[in-house]
C-alpha cells in the first residue's frame, strides 16, 4: 500500500465523516497548547515557585501517583457512558487545573493543582484511543493512530517554536505564565470541539461482539493482556525521558543552554510529523509486534547517545549539542514505531466490550512510569548525571527482550493477534 493511497484514505475519511473535523481540531489545540509549555514545565516551576529540582521531581511524582486513579476511572466511563464524557472530562480538568498553576505557588498548592491536571492527562490517552478504536475500522487504525500523532506533533512543533522563541527572548516569570495561560485556554476550546462530535452516550459496538463464553473471563486475569503489559512496561518510561529528563539534564550540564530543550522538543514533534507516515510505510511488512520491538531497540540506542553526551558535556561542550540532536532524532523514530503499533494491539487484544478497560490498563503503565519516573530521575541526576540515561537504556533493552518473548513461532504465523501474543 503506497503512502499516497494511505493519505487519500485519511483525506476521504476527513471529508466524509462529521466527527473528523472536531476531533482533529481538538487534537491540534491540545497539542499546540501543550507544546507551548511542555519543554519548559520543569523550568516554569523552578522559575516561578522557588522549588528545587528534587522538590519538583517529588511534586510531579506525588501528583502522578494520585493521577493514576483517573486511568481506570476513565476506562469505566468509556465502557459505561461512552467516549465523549471521558474526553470532555479530560480537557476540562486540564484547562481548569492549568489555570491553577497561575494561582498557587507553594508546594502543596502546586501539587494539588498538578494532580488535577494529571487526572486530565491520564484520562485523555484512554479516551483518545477509544474514540479512534470506536470510529475507525480495524484495518485502518494503525495508520489513523500514526496520522493523528502526526497532526498532534504538528501542533506541538508549532507551539514549541513559539514557546522557544518567547523564552529565548524574554526568559522571565511573566513569559512562562503567559505560555501557561494560553495552554489552559487551548484545553477549554478543545473541550468545546469534543462536545460537537456526534456520538451517542453509550459506546457503539458493531460486528465485534465476543462469544458469550468470553464474558465469564475476568479481565484482570486475561493472560494475553498481562503478558503484553509486562513486556512493554519498561519502555513506557520513554516520556519521562523526554518531558522531564531532557530539560533537567541540559540545565544540569549548562543552565545557559536551557532554551535548547524547546528546540529538541520541536525537532521531536517535527520528526513525528514528517517521518510517521514514511516509517509506517517502509515497515508495513512487519507485524505490529515487530514494529514495537524495532522501536524499543531504537529508543534504547537513543538513550545510549544521550549517555555519551553526558560524558562529553562537561568536557567538550561542542560535541554535547550535536549529540543531543542525534539522540532526539533516534528517540523520535523509536517512539513513532513503538506507540502506534502498541496502541493498535492493545485496542484489539481483548473483546470489544472490554476495550476501555484494556486501553486503560495499558495507559496505567504510563501513569505509573510518569509518577515514579521524575522522583527516580531527579535523584539520579543530583547524584551522577550519567546514571539517569543508564537507567533508561537498561529499561529499553529489557523491554526488547520481553517483547521478543511474545513473537510467534514459525507455525503460528497465521494465528490471530490475541493468539500470537499469548505464545
TrEMBL record:
<keyword id="KW-0812">Transmembrane</keyword>
<keyword id="KW-0472">Membrane</keyword>
<keyword id="KW-0813">Transport</keyword>
<feature type="transmembrane region" description="Helical">
    <location>
        <begin position="180"/>
        <end position="199"/>
    </location>
</feature>
<feature type="transmembrane region" description="Helical">
    <location>
        <begin position="387"/>
        <end position="407"/>
    </location>
</feature>
<keyword id="KW-1133">Transmembrane helix</keyword>
<feature type="transmembrane region" description="Helical">
    <location>
        <begin position="98"/>
        <end position="119"/>
    </location>
</feature>
<dbReference type="InterPro" id="IPR020846">
    <property type="entry name" value="MFS_dom"/>
</dbReference>
<dbReference type="InterPro" id="IPR036259">
    <property type="entry name" value="MFS_trans_sf"/>
</dbReference>
<feature type="transmembrane region" description="Helical">
    <location>
        <begin position="58"/>
        <end position="78"/>
    </location>
</feature>
<protein>
    <submittedName>
        <fullName>Predicted arabinose efflux permease, MFS family</fullName>
    </submittedName>
</protein>
<feature type="transmembrane region" description="Helical">
    <location>
        <begin position="20"/>
        <end position="46"/>
    </location>
</feature>
<feature type="transmembrane region" description="Helical">
    <location>
        <begin position="319"/>
        <end position="341"/>
    </location>
</feature>
<keyword id="KW-1003">Cell membrane</keyword>
<dbReference type="GO" id="GO:0005886">
    <property type="term" value="C:plasma membrane"/>
</dbReference>
<dbReference type="InterPro" id="IPR011701">
    <property type="entry name" value="MFS"/>
</dbReference>
<dbReference type="InterPro" id="IPR050171">
    <property type="entry name" value="MFS_Transporters"/>
</dbReference>
<feature type="transmembrane region" description="Helical">
    <location>
        <begin position="154"/>
        <end position="174"/>
    </location>
</feature>
<feature type="domain" description="Major facilitator superfamily (MFS) profile">
    <location>
        <begin position="19"/>
        <end position="411"/>
    </location>
</feature>
<feature type="transmembrane region" description="Helical">
    <location>
        <begin position="228"/>
        <end position="250"/>
    </location>
</feature>
<feature type="transmembrane region" description="Helical">
    <location>
        <begin position="262"/>
        <end position="281"/>
    </location>
</feature>
<feature type="transmembrane region" description="Helical">
    <location>
        <begin position="293"/>
        <end position="313"/>
    </location>
</feature>
<dbReference type="Pfam" id="PF07690">
    <property type="entry name" value="MFS_1"/>
</dbReference>
<feature type="transmembrane region" description="Helical">
    <location>
        <begin position="362"/>
        <end position="381"/>
    </location>
</feature>
<dbReference type="GO" id="GO:0022857">
    <property type="term" value="F:transmembrane transporter activity"/>
</dbReference>
